[in-house]
């Protein structure tokens, strides 16, 4: 009889051990580039091989993941190459800060998502992004804040500190730069991804998107150094919902067969 109880309990295990996180749905997007150390750059934010890289003021990777953020007097900043680039007219790669209502950072730090834009000038275009940061300041919707140099003002003037320029070259509060030509005043490493916003992205204003989690492509993990432990094994939301019940049903059925009543 105890053998059956053990078998029944073993069948319950999968539902207790595999966390399920949102893997698809509608989302809002906006822009940010604050030069701060990205939140997924700290240890322990999710189950991954390594936090995302932060950089020093020369855009060289820091090996110390405990280094403090440039937004609070430290020397760790956002790396310039964690920024978007176009593959062709309808497909781009990039990085984003994310948040899903009701979840915390272990759900998204280091995960990759396909974003299919559903409104604005980019409707019909697609990006694949890796999440390197967290945007908790929006609570009401799934959110991807696209990391675009000059795309929004720099919090705590970290960009001025990182690049030794006036913070005003990064633009106005909540807007960033207004015209493509202003991109040419940014530090060299940020100019091409700034122009991406006016070329490929058509300066779309907060377009909505459908998101779908995907396995991270090497071209993105190469820039962050981060691969999640569940990158190949994550459970899609719809099948996760089904599997919550099936182990219990199976265990209950086996218990009935063996004359044991669980509960
Ligand atoms: C700039 O960032 C703020 C704060 O996260 C956000 O509310 C705003 O929508 C952003 N602006 C754009 C144009 O994305
Ligand atoms: C960045 O590079 C310059 C020129 O090589 C050097 O003087 C400076 O110390 C470097 N800064 C850091 C933080 O390594
Ligand atoms: C654009 O690039 C993506 C990714 O490589 C590819 O899937 C898609 O077919 C390309 N589209 C065009 C129009 O070339
Ligand atoms: C976005 O998702 C909605 C709802 O599932 C669907 O009707 C729509 O076709 C999707 N659009 C794109 C561009 O994927
Ligand atoms: C990224 O790719 C380049 C070229 O293949 C390689 O030299 C570099 O070590 C890679 N970086 C990481 C963090 O994997």
TrEMBL record:
Magnesium keyword on record: no
EC number(s) given by UniProt: 3.2.1.4
Signal sequence range: 1-19
Pfam families, per the entry: Glyco_hydro_45 (PF02015)
Keyword annotations from UniProtKB, A to Z: Carbohydrate metabolism, Cellulose degradation, Glycosidase, Hydrolase, Polysaccharide degradation, Signal
Source organism, top-level taxon: Eukaryota
Positions of the Glycosyl hydrolases family 45 active site domain: 29-225
BP terms from Gene Ontology: cellulose catabolic process
Listed GO MF terms: cellulase activity
Catalyzed chemical reaction(s): Endohydrolysis of (1->4)-beta-D-glucosidic linkages in cellulose, lichenin and cereal beta-D-glucans
Classification via PANTHER family: ENDOGLUCANASE 1
Family listed: Belongs to the glycosyl hydrolase 45 (cellulase K) family.
Protein name: cellulase
Organism: Pseudogymnoascus verrucosus
């Amino acid at each position: 009889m105890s053998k059956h109880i053990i078998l029944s309990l073993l069948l319950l295990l999968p539902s207790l051990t595999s966390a399920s996180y949102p893997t698809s749905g509608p989302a809002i997007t906006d822009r940010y580039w604050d030069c701060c150390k990205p939140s997924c750059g700290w240890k322990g934010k999710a189950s991954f091989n390594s936090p995302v890289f932060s950089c020093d003021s020369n855009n060289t990777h820091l090996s110390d993941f405990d280094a403090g953020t440039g937004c609070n007097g430290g020397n760790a900043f956002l790396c310039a190459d964690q920024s978007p680039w176009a593959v062709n007219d309808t497909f781009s790669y990039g990085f984003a800060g994310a948040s899903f209502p009701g979840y915390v950072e272990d759900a998204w730090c280091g995960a990759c998502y396909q974003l299919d834009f559903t409104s604005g000038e980019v409707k019909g275009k697609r990006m694949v992004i890796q999440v390197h940061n967290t945007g908790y300041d929006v609570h009401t919707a799934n959110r991807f804040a696209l990391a675009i140099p000059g795309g929004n003002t720099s919090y705590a003037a970290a960009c001025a500190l990182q690049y030794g320029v006036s913070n005003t070259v990064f633009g106005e509060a909540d807007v960033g730069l207004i015209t493509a030509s202003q991109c040419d005043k940014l530090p060299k490493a940020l100019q091409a991804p700034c122009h991406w916003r006016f070329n490929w992205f058509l300066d779309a204003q907060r377009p909505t998107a459908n998101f779908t989690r995907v396995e991270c492509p090497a071209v993105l993990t190469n820039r962050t150094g981060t691969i999640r432990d569940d990158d190949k094994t994550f459970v899609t939301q719809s099948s996760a919902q089904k599997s919550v019940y099936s182990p219990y049903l199976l265990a209950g059925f086996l218990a009935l067969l063996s004359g044991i009543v669980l509960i």
